[in-house]
Predict the 3D structure of the following.
Amino acid sequence: MYLSSDDKANNDNFYSNQLLLHTSIIFAFLQRLLISAVIMNRLPTLDPHVLTIADLKEAACHDMPKMYRDYYNEGAMDLITLKDNEAAFNRYKIRPRVMINVAKIDLETDIFGIKPSSYAWTRTSRWRIGNIARSSKSERVYGIISFCDKSSGRCDRSGHGQPIFHAHFDDQGQSGIQWWTLILITTDKVTAAGYKAIFLSVDVPVLGQRLNEHKNKFELPEGLEWPNLTAVGEGLEYDATIEWHTAIPWMRSQTKLEIWLKGVASPEDVALAIQHKVDGIMISNHGGRQLDGVPATLDSLRDCASVAKGKIPIAFDGGVRRGSDIFKALALGADVVFMGRVPIWGLAYKGQQGVELAVKILMAELRMTMALAGCRTVKEINRGHLAVLKGDGVLCKL
Ligand SMILES: Cc1cc2nc3c(=O)[nH]c(=O)nc-3n(C[C@H](O)[C@H](O)[C@H](O)COP(=O)(O)O)c2cc1C
């Protein structure tokens, strides 16, 4: 067949177009292969609607009446400390180390005489005691607060710890009865082991001012009871008279459990806690619900850790929403990291399943952060893994 030069040119064009088409099909195919390989490698999606704790909060709060939503999510006065608790984590950058074999990541820590994963929950009410997230081989730690609407006695097999949960004092003539906020620390193997420690909330001599409760005319749901406080009766008052030299010896006389102070935020008080031989401190500002204007707990942790380190174990809470937040708190000296609102959002989203989802998300995020930062164990995480950006934009190692 004869081809004119025009035909030839057209033909050449046709073939080169065909070649281009085939090449791009092959390229697209290879690209798909590559993408699916990457996709195969990504973390499993636990819930298509909830990939992060931020998603969990949104899902949990979507249909929640404003009165309850604000009660859980807001805090004292202008919410400055509340917001700073979360913002503080973004002020720290992670300094990753590479070429370290991170095929095996161990999340366990060593505290309360057990080996839980390095974070835990504090809970306030409607808690299904000792009944969540048993899937992990390591124990999880929970705090059961005196306000809990389940009786602490229901899961107490240890024979000690129970009486102090009802700690209250006659106020010698004034009206009302004074009492302390206590949190019993337990684990998911609680039925066998009993309580591990008792946390005394030392940041509540009086209650902070939470404006949302006034604006929304907050009321507790009908029928909610506090079975742990039945002995206290009407006219409950916080104990504004609480002091180091009376409270700690009295608690020691009442319980064999470890005694921890929750709500310590200044190095001077860390030194006093060591002096009074308490078993541990929790750096906390009550999730921004007490004194607005105090530092973010992450900043307090950095301030307090040098006094505490090696002398007294440090628990930490406030604003933790990601696995990388847990990493940063551990790097700044926390031995164990607690969360308050996260399990509440989990419960509101899907009950027990929602709390388990939160646990899994945070476990996966912490494991990934540790691997990418070059840390195989919790003990390997240290201040050297953190930096801050100075005002002039220069990265500064801690
Ligand atoms: C609704 C609600 C009620 C709380 N009640 C108490 C309490 O009675 N005693 C206490 O020590 N802490 C209480 N907390 C504070 C938590 O124990 C914890 O310190 C705080 O929530 C941690 O901050 P996060 O929520 O940002 O994790 C409460 C927190 C929330 C959200």
Remarks:
- The chain is about 40% helix and 15% strand.
